[in-house]
Amino acid sequence: MTEQTPVTQAAAAPVTLPDAQEVTEVRHYTDRLFSFKTTRPPSLRFRSGEFVMIGLMGDPDPKTGKQKPLMRAYSIASPSWDDELEFYSIKVADGPLTSRLQHIEPGDRIILRPKPVGTLVHDALLPGKRLWLFATGTGFAPFASLLRDPETYENFDRVIVTHTCREVAELTYSKETIGKIRSDELFAELIGEEGLDKLVYYPTTTREESPKMGRITELLKSGEVFRDLGLPEGMSPDADRAMVCGSMGLNLDLKDILEGYGLREGANSEPAEYVVEKAFVG
Ligand code: A2P
Predict the structure, then answer these.
(1) Where are the extended beta strands (E) located within the chain?
(2) Handedness of CA 260, 218, 247, 201 (dihedral sign)
(3) DSSP-derived pairing of the beta strands 130-136 and 240-246
(4) Residue to mutate, 225, 247, 257, ligand 1, most ligand atoms under 8 Å from C-beta
(5) Whether the CB of 136 sits within 6 Å of ligand 1
(6) What is the pLDDT of residues 213-230, one digit of tens each?
């Protein structure tokens, strides 16, 4: 049964919602970005990199007074072994969901449909040597999950994650996540020092001065990324695998670049050399 509760109240007091999960932590990074954690339904199994639908109850219809859940796809940013779920979100002032979601606090409840899906998963890639994870903005979320999954380091010799944002502060979430991975003693025990050595973080900004500037697409085309990482220029379908998560423009431009190297798009049903998914927006 669906209990009808206005969203405005949902942020203020615990209420009963369908598939409700409790918010346990909220962190704000900029006026555009925040992350939050929730309890995990005991029955929820997912593969690192997948997404679920989450949301809040919408306002009552002025005519009927009925409310509908307001749901959006969100990549799960936590790894599949974690007790809690983590999400990384943009805040859009007039976004139907995020204009409200950005006000959640620990103790509040959100709706979470426990049906994970997605293509940014190991199963959709053929075995390879190097794994490239290309993110812009909140597209880093599924990689925050995959980078905390031991399988990522078991499957590849090198794991290169690039994150491009407009401004330096927008890199905080990825920077902190990578920092935690590198300093987590339990994780180091699990994947070994040599596992941690495989991880390369390559952050870039496009609209504010930082040590590495430019769109990742341009840095790939000019060969700068490969020179910076001490790799031979270009990619090969034998060795390189890629996952892409960003805006529509980024996804399309990177598809062109990857296919230019001879990589083919994979899917759960037919694994290949790269996979793409649109980052959550609005
Ligand atoms: P730029 O500042 O040059 O537009 P957004 O905040 O709009 O989602 O963008 C996040 C980051 O993704 C920005 O640094 C932006 O660069 C970059 N970006 C947007 N579109 C593309 C694209 N088609 N190819 C490469 N990078 C892109």
Answers:
(1) 20-28, 33-39, 51-57, 69-75, 84-90, 109-117, 130-136, 158-165, 199-205, 240-246, 274-278
(2) positive
(3) parallel
(4) 247
(5) yes
(6) 999 999 999 999 999 999
Span from the CA of 7 to the centroid of ligand 1 (angstroms): 32
Average pLDDT for 245-253: 96
Question: Which residues are CB-contacts of 194 (< 8 A; sequence separation ≥ 6)?
Answer: none
What is the residue type of 259?
A: E
Q: Is the CB of 247 under 6 A from ligand 1?
A: yes
Q: Is 90 exceeded by the pLDDT of residue 79?
A: yes
Please name the residue whose Cα sits nearest to atom 12 of ligand 1.
136
Q: Is the CB of 212 under 6 A from ligand 1?
A: no
| Ligand 1, atom 27, residue with closest C-alpha | 250
User: For the segment 90-116, what is each residue's pLDDT rounded down to a tens digit?
Assistant: 999 999 999 999 999 999 999 999 999
Q: How far is CA 223 from CA 94, 105, 164, 178, 227, in A?
A: 39, 44, 16, 24, 6
Q: How far, CA to CA in Å, does 80 sit from each of 72, 85, 118, 262, 272?
A: 20, 9, 14, 31, 23
| 273's tokens | 């050399």
245 lines ligand 1 (CB under 6 A): no
Q: Angle 185-196/172-183 helices, nearest 10 degrees?
A: 90
Which of 164, 221, 224 gets mutated to test ligand 1 (max ligand atoms within 8 A of its CB)?
A: 164
Residue nearest to atom 22 of ligand 1 (CA): 250
Listed in sequence order, the residues at least 6 apart from 184 whose beta carbon sits closer than 8 Å to its beta carbon are none
